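Q&A FORM
Asked by: J.P.
Topic: structure of Haloacid dehalogenase

PROVIDED:
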Amino acid sequence: MKDNPIKNIVFDLGNVIIDIDVPRAAHSFAKLSGRNPEDVVEMFGTAGLFGQFETGQLDAAGFRNYVRELLQNPDWEDAVVDTAWNSLLLDIPPARIEMIQKLGENYRLFLLSNTSSIHIEAVNTILEKATGVPRLDDLFEKLFLSYEMGVMKPDPAIYEQVLREAGLEAGETLFLDDNENNIIAARALGIQTFHVQPPLTMLDFLQDYVA
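REPLIED BY: S.T.
REPLY: Here is the structure written out as tokens.
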């Protein structure tokens, strides 16, 4: 892109790289437990389950045990909980990965995601099956993951940590996310942004950035 000031690109994960359908997880847990999806959403929300897991307050074992406790199914095996939790993860279109690989020739690339250890493991499996790339680490200079950082988007602290640790200038950094609140928070710090919204994908916006 002519006169492009961008030197760094930070990608969200869900609905930017991998397609997701968040309600599917609640429906999966509802089906397993014989409850209504709305009741599961309310129960998990009241307990702050996902927020605790995605900020590292709960590890994978703690998350699974809390799910068993909340849904009163103490005998569920780990794989049962993981499969229901991962059901919200859909497909990774190979064209998106090819775009990221091309961009890596001219830009510093990073991932910033509100996520959990169970999801990252599953995403890596989906990624390798879809594209042959074994891990997200192979695509980015560094992964900034909320469960490791102890903070979630849209808290300004998470963006400040990314800028600080990677040595990035906000005005030279482009951030792509599907959540408007996350975009607003990044923009307030001077980061350039693109709000990924259907029918547009990251591919539509980033074509001009490929040399």
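FOLLOW-UP: The chain has eleven helices and five strands.
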